[in-house]
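Problem 3 from the worked examples.
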Amino acid sequence: MVVEAPVLYRVITTAGVGPVLYRVITMVVEAPVLYRVITTAGFIVLAVIFILLQGVTIGLWLSVRTKADLWLRGKMLDLLKNYAGPEATDSTSNGWNILFMKARCCGVNAQYENGGTNDDFTELPTTWTPSGTDKLPASCCQGASTSTVSTYVSSSTCTQTPSNFYTEGCYSRVKHYIDTYSLVTIIAAGSGIMVELLETKF
């Protein structure tokens, strides 16, 4: 049973305990209420700070995205300069060949786009340059794999024409993968903000 404050005061003063003890008792009685007020206010402050930090993080990511895209394209072009061909065994060339075949792309930018003559291997140029009748590396041919790529060298149906090759540049493919995973991160962060807002509200 909860005793009302005026009644409690009369009981204490009648007993001769005095108003000092009354104040102490009322402080003890009201302490849980005060604690709840303080902890609720603290939670709200921390939640607001956390939400602001998440918002700043997303804003910074969006602001540097364009610069990051330019940096990525530039780095890929620098690496492609050291490409030595579809049958080269060095790590750089091997990495590019695997990327061409697995990601189904060729070079960094789109190759021979819209029937044009532009290709990264000639324009950079790369260590491997179109020689003889081959205009593109055999690893850019559709259907080529690590075990069959040599059969596509000097192919009249791919590297010589060129035709039946992956026209999309690897930059756009890599950027697509990065954007996909970045979108997942943004959705997760946004969901976290919504949950915190709801928890703060209720």
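Problem 4, a separate protein:
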Amino acid sequence: MLQRLWRHLADTLRHAYFHYSVILCIAILEPAERYVINSVVIVVVSLLVYATVVYMPGHVTMLCQCFVHLTGIRSHGDSVGQRGTTSATIS
């Protein structure tokens, strides 16, 4: 079963890389040029992710909460009655 999972993951990654190379026309480049373009893309994406997490943590947290709310995923500590309640009281 684990071998089948790895095979499925490898096929999915291979398929995604094929789409990436066709969309960006990387398939027609020389291997050295392909290496440079892939390196630039990886560096730019990693810097964008790093900058987003470091400089906008509130926005990232809000987006994660929206994703959790939209998908209905709950943590183990949540119960049905606790959703939507607030701890502040109005005086």
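Solution to problem 4. The mean pLDDT is 84. The radius of gyration is 21 Å.
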